[in-house]
Each structure stands twice: as structure tokens, then as C-alpha cells.
Amino acid sequence: MAVDVRCPVPGCNKLLHRIERPANGHLVECKCRCGAVFHVLVVTQSPAAFDRLPGESDKAYAAFRAYLRHEPAVRSQQIVALECSKHVSQVNRWANRWAWRARAAAWDSYQTRRAPAYTEGA
Q: What is the CB neighbour count within 10 angstroms for residue 6?
């Protein structure tokens, strides 16, 4: 299964990259002629998606784990910066570089599937 990466800028949508065999943790930097620069991280729905990615530093991964400890509604890079005693701009760089939002969404989905279903009166 191949994955096409297109520019996210409204109105552009140019095909920038085709990942022939996407693997968990595959990270691609894409640059478009329109000026957009972004990273694409392939995240599968397996627990391995939440492991430390190749090239991710100990500090960046520790900050990501701190990010995951919070409920989705209150997750914040600013809170992580305070907890890890890092400047918020550093945490923002890590979050963008290592696709925290996508990885956290996959983590949340995984946790939801793992949690036993709640039935009233049980």
C-alpha cells in the first residue's frame, strides 16, 4: 500500500512524495514550491507507534511521554515545557518534528480499543 503526500496549503494540493512501503516511524520532510515545509510521520495503530522513534533524543521522547500522560482535552506543549523545565519553543520544535499530535491521536485510539467497554449496571 503506497501513501501519497500532498501539500496541505489550501489551493495547492501538489503531490510531493509517494511512500511506497510506509513503515511505522517513517519520517519525511516535504518542501513545496508554494513555500510550505512540513514533516510527515507514518503512524500505524500498533503500540510501536508510541515507542521512541529513530533519531528522537531521550529528552524529546521524555517530553512526548509527558504529553501523553495528560488527557487529550488538556494536553498542551506549554504544560510539558513547565513539567520538563524546557523553553516552550524547544518543546514546540520537538512536537512538530516528531508529530506529537498524530502519535497522541494514535495512542488515544489504541487506549480506547484496549479499555474494557463500560456497561451501565455492571
A: 14
The phi, psi pair for 99, rounded to 5°, reads: 50, 55
- Report how far apart, in Å, the C-alpha atoms of 27 and of each of 40, 70, 88 are: 6, 25, 23
CA angle 53/56/58 to nearest 5° reads 115
CB 12 within 8 A of CB 30: no
**25-44 b/e with 16+ CB inside 10 Å = b?**
bbeeebebeeeeebebbbbe
Q: Phi, psi at residue 72, to the nearest 5°?
A: -55, -35
Half-sphere exposure of 94 (CA within 13 A, CB side): 27
Per-residue model confidence as pLDDT tens for the chain (122 residues): 566 777 777 787 777 777 676 666 667 777 888 887 777 766 655 545 677 888 899 999 999 999 999 999 999 999 999 999 999 999 999 999 998 988 888 888 878 877 665 445 54
